[in-house]
């Protein structure tokens, strides 16, 4: 019997030694949650001594526990016999420690007890949170790239830089110096100039040498969309926001988060959308159409217009506060008729460009052809000149450029340019283009092609200028 007793005592000592040396916080407690015994690790982990822990209620060590919660958990323990849960243990010095608790129910000498094993999982918790944050960042980046890729697939991919701004004019050289200055800042830029003067090229030049150049320039022509769709295009909409909104749509401002947005023809923006745009510029936030969640964005805005915004303000068509918010750094691009010294440079540039494109060897421009090009007043500016040269290259049969009869007849008299408003000049020019095509707007032989603009843009301009076909 003595050998059996010795073995039993040895097993008890081994059990005691193992429990005392275990790295986990081990405790025994009764049905009231009162601690009866703890091991050495319990003191090291909690910062309390054994005398302080014995008699303390275990659930007082947990940040979110209370008597009611403990009694509910005890009843669950009686039913399940074992529970495993995570929580936060409050140490003596006030630290919150992430722990995993495994607790077992048993009866001993007619009393109910529980034995708990508490393990410090702080590092595991931090690692899990770091992984979760990393995954969230990956998802966010993936969604952003998907939005950008979708936008880029919809855009015509072109490479724009200073090389495409061909000029020897002092005013343009001054503008390029201003572009370099403002590109290094986050200032909002307003580019002013007639249709076809190259406002988008200047906007791209600003973006391409800015700190945001690693992301694509997002652009929207405010004149090409009806008033009912412009807000959705800018700020997006939720599913069911209006009839036909069958899915959530991400707007251009959300796509442009972290980069630059170019708002062309901002003077055509409806008053309702101007209010939202002003809020984005001032506070960097908006809500999707039909949504209630506020979306924060970091977007640099470059705007452009061929309109007289001060006149639009006086007529109640443009908000004065929005004007002063976008007019932080204005850049005015002069029309081609004011820098005719650039025409020979531009002609040679476009001849070379389109000769390579169509596979021809057009290399010479006669003085007669150059004189006719320089004598024209170019209401459509550089864009109109580019279209004329492209068509001239196509019809040229040898190495000499043949301008043909593409130049519009009955051009706007020089004296009219000095007294007429830009709107009157534009209206007269559009009417001539329409008459020359028998009021055909789109297609290869349409007025939009001659004017070098999108057919939808031309329709929009015709509505705004009150141009209607008459008998």
Structural features, described:
- There is one protein chain.
- Helices cover 46% and strands 15% of the residues.
- With 471 residues, it is an alpha/beta fold.
- The chain folds into three domains: 15-120, PAS domain (Beta-Lactamase, 2-Layer Sandwich), CATH 3.30.450.20; 155-332, P-loop containing nucleotide triphosphate hydrolases (Rossmann fold, 3-Layer(aba) Sandwich), CATH 3.40.50; 339-465, Orthogonal Bundle (Helicase, Ruva Protein, domain 3), CATH 1.10.8.
- The protein starts with a helix and ends in a 6-residue tail after the last helix.
How would you concisely characterize the structure shown here?
This protein is α/β, with parallel strands linked by helices. The protein contains 19 helices and twelve strands. The strands form three sheets. It has a five-stranded antiparallel β-sheet, sandwiched between helices. A five-stranded parallel β-sheet has the order 7-8-11-6-12.
Overall pLDDT score: 82
What is the straight-line distance between the termini?
Answer: 127 Å
Instruction: Look at the structure and give the CATH class of the largest domain.
Output: Alpha Beta
Uncertain stretches of 5 or more adjacent residues = 153-161, 414-418
Major β-sheet annotation: 5 strands, antiparallel
Fraction in beta strands: 15-25%
Number of strands: 12
Helical run tally: 19
Count of the separate structural domains: 3
Shape: elongated
Based on the coordinates given, report the CATH architecture of the largest domain: 3-Layer(aba) Sandwich
| Global Rg | 38 Å
CATH H-level superfamily of the largest domain: P-loop containing nucleotide triphosphate hydrolases
> What multimeric state do the chains show?
single chain
Structure class: alpha/beta
Helix proportion? 40-55%
